[in-house]
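Encode chain A's predicted structure.
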Amino acid sequence: MAPPLSRRTLLQAAALTAAATGLSVFATGGAAAAAGGPAGPLRPFALGDVALGEGVFADKRALLLDHARGYDVNRLLQVFRANAGQDSGGAVAPGGWEGLDGEANGNLRGHYTGHFLTMLAQAYASTGEKVFGDRLRTMIGALTEVREALRRDPVVLTAEGPFGPAVEQVRGSYRYVDLPGGVLGTTTAVTLSAWVRPEHDAPWARVLDFGADTTRYLYLAVRNAAGVPRFAVTTSGAGGEQALNGTAALPLGRWSHLAVTLGGGTGTLYVDGTAVARNTAMTLTPAALGALADHWLGRSHYAGDPVFAGGLAEFQIWSRVLSPAEIAGLQHARAADTSAGAGDLASYRLDETSGSRFADSSGRGTAAVLRRTWGGPSHPGFLAAYPETQFIQLESMTGSDYTKVWAPYYTAHKILRGLLDAHLATGDARALDLASGMGDWMYARLSRLPAATLQRMWGIFSSGEYGGIVEAICDLHDRSGKPEHLALARLFDLDRLIDACAADTDVLDGLHANQHIPIFTGLVRLYDATGEQRYLTAAKNFWRMVVPHRMYGIGGTSTGEFWKARDVVAGTIGATTAETCCAYNMLKLSRALFLHEPDPAYMDYYERALYNQVLGSKQDRPDAEKPLVTYFIGLTPGHVRDYTPKQGTTCCEGTGMESATKYQDSVYFAAADGGALYVNLYSPSTLGWAERGVTVTQRTAFPAEQGSTLTVGGGRASFALRLRVPGWATAGFRVTVNGRAVEGTPVPGTYFTVSRTWRAGDTVRVSMPFRLRTERTPDDPSLQALFYGPVNLVGRSSASTHLEVGLYGNAALSGDLLPSLAPVPGSPLHYTLHGTEFAPFLEGTEDPTHAYVRRTEPRVVFGGLDSGVANPVRPDGTTLLDAVWAGAPFRSKGALVTHVGKVVDTWVAEGRLARADGDTVVHTARKASYVA
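Encoded structure for chain A:
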C-alpha cells in the first residue's frame, strides 16, 4: 500500500480537481466532498477554505472540538472489535444506542462511530490540528483490522482461568464452541462440569445446550428468569422440562464451578462444589433424547436467548454420576489431576491460545470448533458492528420491528459516510478501500433481489430506513469509478415516493420525517450522476411540501418524528416536536438544491434553521462524555430542553457533532465560472478563494450586530459580489463600498449584486436593520412566534400555558414591534415584555421556554394610547390592527392616519365596526405619538 498523502498534498490535488471539474473539495454531508460533487451553477468551498472568526459559531464549535479531542475512540471501536471477536483492550462501549443494553438491543450500534469519523474529518479539514488526523488514522487502522478478522474463521481469545488460560467470549461477538455429534452417545447416566465467569446478567445465556431443536434438548443456563442457574432436560419442549434450579445468582466477573449429575431418576446441581438443588423425579436421560444435531457451549437453541459472554474453562462430560467428593475435588485442580479423572465422553481444557479448534483429552478425539452463530459475512467487503443477520432478515420482512431489525442500511450509511470523509480529510487509502468494499458488498447483496422486494424493504418504517446512503454511494462512485456503485445507488429508489413528489403530489402525511428527508438529498446527487430530471424535480417539490407547510418557526419539522397534514402546525405542537436530525437533513437538502438553483428561499430557510434550531440544539457548556445535543425540541409552553436524550449516542447527537464542525460550509459559494461570489450568511469568517487569488474577511457580531463588514485581500480580481438580502430585511438594507453607497434597490428575498474590479483593502459594509415581527401558525393565527431579524425570541417562563402578549400598543411607523419590549441592559438580544424575559432561541440553556405565544390585542391601541374600542376580528383571524399594520412601513404619522381611515372605512362597510367606533379609532391614531 502506498503511504498516505500529506494533508497539504491532498488539498492541493483536490483543489486542482475542483478547478478542473468545477467540484468542491468538501461536499454537504461531511468533511469530504465527492470528486463528482454538485453539477449546478454554483460551487461550495472546502471547509479548510473558510475559517470561522470569533462569535457564536466558533464558541459552539469549540465545545465539540474539545469533545472530539478527548473522547476515547477505543470505546467506539469496542462494538466493532467485539463483533469481529477481537480483544477490545478493556474498552467499554459507549452505551445507549451504541451498546447491547441500549434501545432495541443495540441494533443500531456502529452508527455513532460513523458520525464521529465525520466530526473528526470536518474538524481536521477546518483546523488542521494533528490530533484529529491521528485519531482518524487510528480508527481507520482498527476498522481495517476488524474487516480482516471478519473475513477469517474466528480465533480464540484467552483470559486467565482458574488453572491457567481459558476461553474468553466477548459480549457482542456471537461466538460459541461447537462440539461434534454423538458426544453424549447413548449414556443413561451423565455428569457435566464447567468453570464459568459470566460477564452479563441477561437470563438464559447457556453454558451448554445439546439438542435437536426446541423440542428435544438438555441445557445448563447461567441464569434463568429468576436469575439463578438452571439445568433442564426435555423431549417435549419447554412445557415438559425436568429441571434443577439454583438458589443464588452466580457473581459477575468471578469464576464459578457448575456441575450436574443425572442418573437413576435423580438429578443434582452443584455450585462451587456444593449441592444446591436435587430432583428425584428426573426420569429423562441423554439416552432418552435420541440422536441430537447440535452440541453447543455458549449458545441456545432458542433464537431469542443471548449468547454466553464471559470465560469458559475445563468442560468435562462423564458417562457416570460423580460422587459429591469427586465434585468437590474439581474445585482445586483440573479434572485430569483429580480422583474423577478427565471426562470419558469429552474433556476440553479450553486453554488454547490460538486458532479455532479445541482438543479433546477424553481419548475419543472429538475436537471442538469455535464458530459464529451467524456463520460469517456473505462478501469480503462487509463491515459492521453487528452480524449480517439484520440485513438478511430485512429482505423477508413485511412490517416494522426495530427490536429485530433497526435500519441496518441507515447504520451502513453512517459508517460509509464517515469513511469517505476520513479518506478525503487524510488521504488514507485504507479508508477508501473500506468504503469501496462496503459498496461492493451492498451491491452483491441487493442486486440479486427482485425489484418488488427492494420496494417493499425501503417502504418499511424504521427497519427499512437507509438515511443518506444514496448521497454517500454517489460520492463513492465518483471516487471508485465502479459502475456497480452507481447501479447500487439506484437500487435504493423508493419509486412511489419519488414519483408522487415528482408529480407534486403531497403524500407526506403520516410518514416518518427523518427517514425520508435524506432520500431527497440523495436524489439530487443521483440527478448529478444520471441527468434524470425526475430526481431533481422530486427533491424540489418535496422541499416545498415541508417549507413552510410543515415547518415550525425555528426551522424544525416533525412531531413525534412524524409528519402530519399539510399546514397543521399549531395542532402538532408537543413535547416531541422538531427532531434535531430533521433540521440537519433539511439544511443539507436546502444547500444541495441551492447549488443547483440559486433560489434565495433555500438560503432564507438555511439561515432560519441554522441560527435557531441547530445552534439552539447545542448546550452551551463543555462535557467530555457527551456532545450535549437535543433529540427533540419540545415547543410546548415552558419546555426545558434535554441535552442528554434517551440513553445516549442517538442519531441526533451524531448529527449534532457533525453540524458543529461544519458551520462554515455554506457561508460562501462561487459561481461555477468563477465570475461571482455569493455571500449567503453573515458570519464572522475569512474565505481564501484560491481560484481568484483573493481573500474575503467578514467581521461581524451578527446577529447581535445588524450588519457585517467584508474586506477584500490579496490581488486584483473582477467578479460580482452577490449579497443575500434576507426575506425579513424589509426596510433599510444598505450597502457601501469604501464608504460610498452602492446604487440600486435591495429587494428582500433576493441577492444584491456589486460588480467591480476588487483590490486589496476594498471594504464593503452591509447594514440590515432588524425589526421585531411575528409569524403566525397557519392553523391558529393567534399562536405566533416572535422574531427579531433572523432570531427567534423565546419567552423564559415556567408557565405551562401559552404566554399572552400584545405588541401593537407601541408599534413604530416602520411597523417594527420592538418598541413594545424593553431591552435588558448588558444582554444583547434580550428583552422583557410584561415582566417576562425574551431571549434568543440559539442560546443553549436549560431555561423553560415559550417558542410560541398567544397573541391578544383586545382593544385598539396606538402609540400607547388606548382608544377603548374593541379590536374586531374577521373569520380568518385577521384583526383590525392586523389590517392597519400590514400597510407598514409608513413615511409619516400622516400616512399612517390616512391608512387607518381607509381600513376603518372597509371594516365599517363590512359591518364589523360601528361608524362611531371607527371615528374613535381614527381620532386615537391622529392623537398618538409614534417611534419612527
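Confidence is low (pLDDT under 50) at residues 1-36.
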